[in-house]
Amino acid sequence: MSIDYQALAVAGVQGLMPYQPGKPIEELARELGLEPASIIKLASNENPLGPSPVALAAARKALEEMCRYPDGNGFSLKAALASFLKVSPVQLTLGNGSNDVLEVIARCFAGPGDEIVFSRHGFAVYALAAKAIGATGVEVPALEWGHDLDAMAAAVTAKTRLVFVANPNNPTGTVHGQRAVRRFLEKVPARVLVVLDEAYCEYLEGNDDDVDGIALLKEFPNLIVSRTFSKAWGLAALRVGYGISSPEIADILNRVRQPFNVDTIAQAAATAVLADSDYLERSRQVNRDGLRQLEQGFEAQGLSWIPSAGNFIAVDVGDNAGAVYQGLLAKGVIVRPVAGYGMPRHLRVSVGLPEENARCLEALAAVLQDQGAARG
Ligand code: PMP
């Protein structure tokens, strides 16, 4: 007798569509018979600078210890982070990427029958995390592509356990300032946890009203801030992120995370890179310049885009975005389609090095011209 294993999966998992990552360079190289070196990938919001030499040296050294389990408490990394962020180590929860932290939060605080609120065009993992644990995802309509914080506060019901706010948000790049976030937190009841996902906060420009979730923790004990080493710190492959919260919430999260969720090499590289302020500054500068370069290129092509506070930008390429994406792939340029985010006219372009941005813009112009000609 054959068994329907699909039917055995828990209800939330049965309908789950896995997260769609950016297409890897090696995969496109295999598919099109191209040299990997001829392909550029601006699809996963990675740091185009390559890793910090300081992080690389620390990771190489840590490889010598690969036969041993990692420090399950992440003592050195937490100490370095605590001093960098001016918080206490007991407020920290380390994760296998901040993605891990987001999922652990969902598992700790919500279950079947509970509601988790997030925004339309918001980061995809919130809906996935809700579904996987059998909670009900409540998607709130967006306002000018961004989170409508008033509507999100109003969407909180007696069943709501968690609200996810990506700030800046991926893939729209929209951001709310500190005053707007504080107003929002004042409206959310203290029994509802709010996760401020600040994966891209290092790219903020240093304005007075820039959001800083950590500064709000004292006022709002129901707040959890999540951050990552994957973007501005250039360690995406090593998978290191963290949550910052009250010690009480951190204690709960730390009970549920896997005991060795951040490996030795990742811990060493992350600890070391925090001292490389030069690298962080270069990351920010390359991003600032790259965003301007892409905006100017889009402008020259008569395309509109969503102003971005992240290391990526969503550009409106018309009603044939799927074909434009394919056309770019054929030219060895990988960007990210975002139709799955309810943005069928946009493509998300991660900021690359100047020559990568230029090549992307050139390929985009050629593909749009070909398509225009084909349509006559
Ligand atoms: N939050 C947001 C808004 C993101 O865009 C991403 C990465 N795509 C993450 C969290 C997770 O990143 P990581 O797991 O690499 O920290």
Q: Could you explain how this protein is built, in words?
A:
The chain has 376 residues and is α/β, with parallel strands linked by helices. It folds into two domains: 8-50 and 278-375, Alpha-Beta Complex (Aspartate Aminotransferase, domain 1), CATH 3.90.1150; 53-276, Type I PLP-dependent aspartate aminotransferase-like (Major domain) (Aspartate Aminotransferase, domain 2, 3-Layer(aba) Sandwich). The protein has 15 helices and 13 strands. The strands form three sheets. It has a seven-stranded mixed beta sheet with strand order 2-8-7-6-5-3-4, sandwiched between helices. Strands 9-10-13-12 form a four-stranded antiparallel beta sheet, with helices on one face. α5 (75-85) runs parallel beside α12 (264-273) and α13 runs parallel beside α15 (354-375). The chain starts with a helix and ends with a helix. The structure holds 4'-deoxy-4'-aminopyridoxal-5'-phosphate.
